[in-house]
Design brief:
- The structure is a single chain.
- The strands form three sheets. The chain has a five-stranded parallel β-sheet with strand order 2-3-4-1-5, with helices on both faces.
- It has about 850 residues and is mainly α.
- The chain is built from 46 helices and eleven strands.
- Helix content is about 60%, strand content about 5%.
């Protein structure tokens, strides 16, 4: 029998996969499997919009696939038939007439028996609440008559009708053998909502579209109605398989109290209003007042606003919780998502909203009151402006974005003639600076220390040094003119000690430098210049990697309160990964860090990030990419790091002579030469090797002498003197794996002249380390040396990866993919793998590209 009735109710979109109801489908399949033992009955009660009809459609499809005949029953209105037969009308208050009941039961039985001749039967009866009791009683009697026949019965009705006469009859059915309730059709989890939206749009929703859909309380019908409504309103645009809001991203609002119009799509506002309309009017009023208080609100504040005892809020808050509009935190309630809060607030007339904010400002503590004052029109009271500034100051240490929004809004509404206006402006500049809005901070700041700090972090160190004084000026000199900084760094504060420590490092006094910078970390320092940054940098270059790891962790914890500094720990960790030989992780971290530096307008550590990108590309043999990335350094002033990486790229592209042309900058300048040789543990040996390859014996000897004076010349001297035992000692002395491989390669090259077997052994060892580090460029060079010795080595450690599919993922990408597929957030994955969330996001983009997918949902679906 064709499933006409259910199919007519379900539009084509319902034929898409059923999401989030695996447990109920398992129960239905279990009943079908057990039908040989006799009649199986499943009962379902679900709220409006939970998808009970959609579940019955899926059950019918499963049954047909298992050879069942499907008999559809639906009672959409009292006058519509059940099982294709006329409904016998009888008032609910009248007991079923025996003769009519017998006749109706016989009609139903004949209909089902006809289908049983073909095999097992599934009978689905939807919207049972519309049927009269006679029909329900007839169906129950028929179940008893066909108790030993292979029939699966599914009865469904709205859960709101369970207390009705038909609901009581349905409950009575539950007492029969081989009868069970289907699991509740609960709210769909957020990830399932995303799947539903993807099915409807044939595109993956971006975070904002997904967030709007997740505001529907997990109701399938509400989600579908919203998505189709957004489509009908042309409020969505789909590009490259991603669905976004046509009017652009929703504005970010760190204050958690709306300052502007909601700018939410009209259809979304309508959907939320429809949800509110289903609530008790008292509940709606409570939610409206709560929305004025903010996205998060305390029940006591709400009770005070309503001038009512807290006990009277129990019922409305419980209804709002049940409806999924709010959630319960440890000491407050919170609207389910920001768009829900803003949509509820949108239902409050503007005039009433202003009055309620004024009431809240009078009732609440100072910080909260300050926020509400912003909604009460122009502020001409100096005390009110002072309250706004004090609240922003208190927020500055842990939430600079919120502090900035509060202070800037305060400036907009405050009387400019008030003396407190200037103090509020200073707070706004400080907050904007910490929040990474440096261009706005600079535009707003007056000449002075606040402007100097913003200029310093924005990279204009020369102007910051001219305007600033004390620690600000010294910090600016430290970044722009280290010689001048050293001359004025005479104090014992953290900045002065750090400047002196860096000077010691540049002169080769490494132990003194580390000890001094360690002392600097115990002294007072401004938030924008932390001695630990320099300490981590020194620890990485000294290959004290365990210590560097701990230092970077502590830096991350403290940078959390200043968004503008977010690129600092990312840059340091990128170098840490590079020093550990983890090229993929280093490159991913550096790429993420470049984006963070741009977002926060803080370029001071961008050269470090770009240096890692150049060297990582060079190590893995991608010389063209390394050269392309090197262009970012062309506009930068001289630095040993720039010379170091430029020389390496020049050698790879054009040979040792080109590298020496770059190194000419340090040939006649001993101080710059010292800095260069301290850039990397293998820098001295690399420079000597390059000079010898170019036939410049004099420069090679100069480099060796400088390296020995710094205490890092043992490898360079052994290489220059062709000292086999010295090279053997160098291979044992290095803790850095790449430097050790480099020394081993030099040993193999020296032994090639008189001990071929030992040379091959040394070169094999070097190549093995290079391969393990992913240093394809170096590995290829060693294989070339082996070929000259008559040995052809295949790159046995390298298994060519396909361009797409799981086999194309790197080891780190595979770890990220599996963790994400198991439901971990980017932040949780970052903590698991000790990387930043930015790096996890970078890896995810690579994973999506290689696997040809577009979302975490797709990843979870295909993960092996």
């Amino acid at each position: 029998m064709k499933r006409q009735v259910l199919e007519q109710r379900a539009p084509a979109r319902a034929r898409r996969p059923l999401r989030g109801r695996d447990g109920q489908l398992d129960q239905i399949v279990g009943a079908m499997r057990a039908v040989d033992q006799g009649r199986q009955t499943l009962l379902l009660a679900a709220p409006v919009g939970a998808g009970k009809t959609r579940l019955l459609i899926e059950a019918a499809a499963l049954a047909e696939g298992r050879g069942f005949s499907v008999v559809d029953g639906i009672v959409d209105r009292p006058e519509i038939s059940v099982l294709g037969l006329p409904v016998v009308r009888q008032p609910h208050a009248v007991a079923p007439d025996a003769s009519r009941l017998s006749w109706l039961t016989a009609q139903f039985e004949r209909h089902v028996e006809t289908q049983l001749r073909r095999g097992p039967v599934l009978v689905t009866v939807d919207d049972l609440h519309w049927a009269d009791p006679l029909t329900v009683t007839a169906l129950r009697d028929l179940m008893s008559r066909l108790d030993d026949r292979p029939v699966v019965w599914i009865f469904a009705m709205r859960s709101e009708e369970l207390d009705s006469p038909n609901g009581l009859l349905l409950g009575a059915m539950a007492g029969a053998v081989r009868t069970e309730w289907l699991a509740d059709l609960g709210a769909l989890p957020d990830d399932v909502v995303t799947e539903v939206v993807t099915d409807l749009l044939d595109a993956t929703p971006d975070a904002e579209v997904a967030s709007l859909c997740e505001c529907m309380g997990g109701s399938p019908r509400s989600v579908v109605d919203l998505v189709l409504g957004l489509q009908a309103d042309e409020a969505l645009r789909i590009e490259a398989g991603i669905a976004r809001l046509a009017d652009g991203p929703l504005p970010f609002n760190p204050l958690a109290v709306a300052l502007d119009e909601s700018r939410l799509p009209h259809r979304f506002l309508s959907c939320v209003r429809e949800r509110l309309a289903r609530l008790d009017p008292t509940t709606v009023q409570v939610l409206q007042v709560a929305a004025v208080l903010g996205r998060t609100f305390s029940p006591q504040d709400l009770a005070d606003m309503l001038s009512t005892p807290p006990a009277t809020l129990l019922k409305p808050l419980q209804e709002a919780l049940t409806a999924g509009l709010i959630g319960c935190l440890s000491n407050a309630f919170e609207f389910h998502r920001e768009p829900v809060w803003r949509a509820v607030l949108d239902t409050v007339p503007q005039l009433m909203r202003s009055l309620l904010h004024k009431q809240a400002a009078a009732l609440l503590p100072s910080d909260a009151a300050a926020i509400h004052l912003l909604h009460c029109g122009p502020v001409a009271d100096g005390q009110a402006v002072g309250a706004i500034r004090a609240a922003a100051d208190r927020l500055l240490g842990h939430s600079p974005e919120t502090a900035a929004a509060l202070a800037v809004r305060g400036l907009e509404v405050a009387d400019r003639e008030l003396p407190e206006h200037a103090e509020l402006a200073r707070t706004a500049v400080a907050a904007l600076t910490k929040a990474g809005s440096l261009d706005r901070a600079i535009a707003l700041a007056r000449p002075g220390q606040d402007l100097a700090v913003a200029l310093l972090l924005n990279g204009d160190v020369a102007r910051a040094a001219r305007i600033g004084a004390g620690p600000v000026r010294l910090s600016a000199l430290a970044y722009g003119n280290q010689v001048a900084a050293e001359k004025v760094a005479t104090g014992w504060d953290g900045v002065s000690l750090t400047v002196r420590a860096v000077a010691m490092w540049r002169r080769g006094r490494l132990d003194d430098a580390l000890a001094t910078v360690q002392k600097a970390t115990t002294q007072e320092s401004p938030w924008y210049f932390d001695p630990r940054w320099a300490m981590a940098w020194m620890q990485i270059r000294a290959r004290l990697l365990v210590e560097a790891t701990e230092t970077i962790r502590s830096i991350e914890d403290d940078c959390a309160g200043a968004k503008v500094l977010a690129s600092v720990p990312v840059a340091l960790r990128a170098w840490l990964y590079f020093a550990q030989g983890s090229l993929a992780e280093a490159e991913a971290e550096a790429l993420a860090g470049v984006g963070v530096a741009a977002d926060t307008q803080m370029p001071l550590y961008e050269p470090h990030l770009r240096a890692v990108l150049v060297l990582s590309a060079l190590r893995r043999g991608d010389v063209a990419t390394a050269a392309d990335r090197l262009q970012a350094f062309e506009s930068l002033p001289w630095s040993s790091m720039r010379v170091w990486i430029t020389a390496q790229v020049a050698a790879a592209r054009s040979g040792p002579e080109a590298a020496l042309a770059v190194l000419a900058e340090v040939r006649t300048d001993p101080s710059r030469r010292r800095e260069l040789l301290l850039e990397d543990p293998a820098a001295a040996a690399w420079c000597v090797r390059t000079a010898l390859a170019a036939g410049d014996e004099v420069f090679a000897e100069t480099l060796v002498a400088s390296a020995e004076a710094l205490g890092v010349g043992w490898h360079a001297r052994a290489l220059h003197s062709r000292d086999v035992m010295g090279l053997v000692a160098a291979t044992e002395r290095y803790s850095d794996r790449w430097a050790r491989a480099s020394a081993t390669e030099d040993l193999g090259g020296l032994l090639a002249d008189y001990d071929r077997d030992e040379a091959v052994s040394a070169l094999d060892r070097a190549m093995e380390v290079y391969d393990s580090l992913g240093a394809a460029w170096d590995s290829a060079r060693v294989r070339s040396r082996l070929r000259r010795l008559g040995i052809r080595r295949r790159h046995w450690h390298h298994v060519p990866r396909p361009a797409t599919g799981w086999g194309s993922l790197t080891g780190t990408e595979e770890k990220v993919a599996r963790l994400v597929a198991h439901g971990l957030t980017n932040r949780q994955v970052a903590a698991e793998l000790f990387v930043s969330p930015h790096t996890v996001g970078f890896h995810l983009r690579q994973i999506y590209r290689k696997l040809a997918i577009q979302s975490r949902v797709d990843l979870a679906r295909i993960a092996p």
